[in-house]
Design goal:
Length: 275
């Protein structure tokens, strides 16, 4: 590993406080290029970099690696490892809109859960909690009892180790309390499996798949979409979701446009049929 790459990884770990998973992904992507080219990444020009990436045909994978390289090059320029400031162009991807489940469908699915058992109560409370808070599944599974303060959730394990507070709807809090009353185990973590151990991401995915036919992340999109349709400001949604940049939250602007379009069609005089 080149000294510049080692310095970059130390920078994103300590200064930027990126998660271990993110740092590991950067390390893997950038080391791969140095390994293929047999040269320090900082010494490669764009033609050599693209040659090293020539076997990658998936545009999303390619863009992820190019983005990692751009972050590295920006770091090198900023800290004077290299006088050049260069950026590699990313591949154009088709715009995909976030998938979400409408409120009515979520509530209908929740009503189908058998709450006679503590596992059924857990599944009901978990799905409602994810929809009521919009947390990432990794954040949700790290929640402990002390993180619920009155009607607020304290997210202590957010992306980049950033802390934030999210208000919780009363219905979700009620389901959570009922679940806590019937858990036959004691564990530091709120969500547990049938053995009393911390619930895994795979198990949480299976629960959402079983009742909703979708993933926990879709519930996060559903939470954001519900807020936007209800008239929430985009910056408020950004804060609630824990997005570092408003650009990330702007994927939901299509919902705003759709809502505005439907409002005009239903309310404006020129959109109504003449009698």
């Amino acid at each position: 590993m080149s000294k510049e790459l080692e310095a970059f990884l130390e920078y994103i770990t300590i200064i930027r406080s990126l998660s271990l998973k993110t740092v590991s992904a950067y390390r893997s992507d950038l080391l791969e290029i140095e390994s293929v080219s047999q040269k320090a990444l900082i010494s490669l020009d764009s033609s050599l970099i693209f040659a090293a990436l020539s076997s990658i045909h998936n545009k999303r994978t390619l863009n992820r690696k190019l983005s990692a390289i751009n972050s590295f090059l920006d770091f090198c320029h900023r800290y004077q490892y290299d006088s050049r400031l260069s950026k590699l162009s990313l591949s154009k991807l088709p715009k995909t809109l976030p998938k979400y489940v409408p409120y009515e469908s979520i509530m209908k699915s929740l009503n189908s859960i058998d709450k006679a058992t503590w596992l059924g109560m857990r599944d009901y409370a978990l799905i409602l909690f994810l929809y009521a808070t919009g947390t990432r599944i990794s954040e949700c599974l790290e929640v402990k009892e002390e993180d619920i303060q009155e009607q607020w959730l304290r997210v202590r394990h957010g992306k980049g180790d950033k802390e934030r507070y999210i208000p919780i709807a009363q219905e979700a809090l009620s389901a959570l309390r009922h679940y806590q009353e019937v858990i036959p185990f004691r564990n530091n973590h709120l969500w547990v499996n049938y053995k009393g151990e911390q619930l895994s991401r795979i198990s949480a995915f299976k629960i959402c798949q079983k009742y909703l036919g979708t993933s926990p992340h879709t519930l996060r999109h559903s939470y954001a979409t519900g807020l936007i349709l209800g008239g929430a400001d985009l910056r408020v949604v950004q804060e609630l979701l824990g997005h570092a940049s408003l650009l990330t939250t702007q994927i939901y602007t299509h919902v705003q446009k759709q809502n505005l379009h439907e409002t005009v069609l239903s309310c404006h005089p020129l959109s109504k049929e003449l009698i």
